[in-house]
Amino acid sequence: DIADDDSADKDIADDDIADDDSADEDTADGTPNVHGKRAPYLPDNPREDPALRENPFVFMDPSTSDLKAVLDYYGIKESMLGRGFLSRMENGMFRTVYYVADSVRQIMDYAGSRLRVVNTGIKVFGRSSVKEAGCAYRLVCEGVPQLLPHLGDKYVIEVPFADLKTLIEHVNPLLSLMSEETQRRVSKVAPSCSVIMCYDPAKHADDEEKPFTRLTALLSIPCWRGGASLSAHINKSQLRSLNHRVLGRVADKNSTFKLDNNARDSDSVAISADSPAVCADDA
């Protein structure tokens, strides 16, 4: 019996060694194993599973995929290039780019194709519906906190409170309604792409006009830069809340609250027709 136990233990040990050796080897397609366990997260593409209504998430290589053009356009700094960008591929194209932290990517890599991810990540880029846009993708409001520290300087524009007020109380406000400095900064950005308008209450503490509610943090709003106007890329509920908290306007859903619109001639309307007031994905 003792001899049998010894042989059994030896068999188990041999199996463990064999498993460890196979884990260190590359996969059949030449992809090295991660953490000495198994191949990175790469689900079947396309996965034909009637239980899934959407294509699976696939990690994107920011140096070789179509994502590179988007990152280069918005001047995304190297500090973010090594992070986890992923998307649901549809007919070889992606509509929305998501971002996940390194810890989430490690879990997905470790689990490999055995992990079926339904939802994950934060939206950072979305395909624009505007034809012949400067960039085919716009910045998504949800991902602004993650993108802001890594964006190119010309796409981040600091504004005084007067410009912030104009932006959130008008539909597609004309650039001519903004301050000269804001107009100058916006003019450096090509039309038909995204910019982020930032209001820092600490830097404008001495302004004559101030928010209705005291603000203590940086307020950043992604906008679409049209030919002659700007358009806030936030949904109606967020815009209603901003009007209430920043401007003190009644914002109850059952009220007659609505944004002020600008009277424009036909030429102005034609120029700014590519600037939707609310993002389709966020509405």
Write up this protein:
By secondary structure, the chain is α+β, with helices and mostly antiparallel strands. The chain has nine helices and nine strands.
Fold blueprint:
Elements: H1 2-24, E1 57-59, H2 67-73, H3 78-81, E2 84-90, E3 93-100, H4 102-111, E4 122-127, E5 137-139, H5 144-147, E6 156-158, H6 161-169, H7 180-187, E7 193-199, E8 219-225, E9 230-232, H8 236-247, H9 266-272
Parallel strand pairs: 6-7
Antiparallel strand pairs: 1-2, 2-3, 3-4, 4-5, 7-8, 8-9
Radius of gyration: 25 Å
How do the strands line up in the largest sheet? 1-2-3-4-5
**Structural class given helices, strands, pairing?**
alpha+beta
Low-confidence stretches: 7-35, 263-283
Give the rounded overall mean pLDDT: 74
Strand and helix order: HEHHEEHEEHEHHEEEHH
Task: Summarize the amount of helix as a percent range.
Answer: 25-40%
Based on DSSP secondary structure assignment, what is the total number of beta strands? 9
The fraction of residues in strands falls at 15-25%
* Distance N to C terminus: 72 Å
Q: Tell the overall outline.
A: elongated
Q: Count of helices?
A: 9
Largest sheet: 5 strands, antiparallel
Can you describe this structure in just a few lines?
30% of the residues lie in helices and 17% in strands. The protein has 9 helices and 9 strands. The chain has helices at 2-24, 67-73, 78-81, 102-111, 144-147, 161-169, 180-187, 236-247, 266-272; strands at 57-59, 84-90, 93-100, 122-127, 137-139, 156-158, 193-199, 219-225, 230-232.
Describe the structure using short key phrases.
elongated; 283 residues; 4-stranded mixed β-sheet; 9 helices; disordered C terminus; 30% helix; alpha+beta; single chain; 17% strand; 5-stranded antiparallel β-sheet; 9 strands
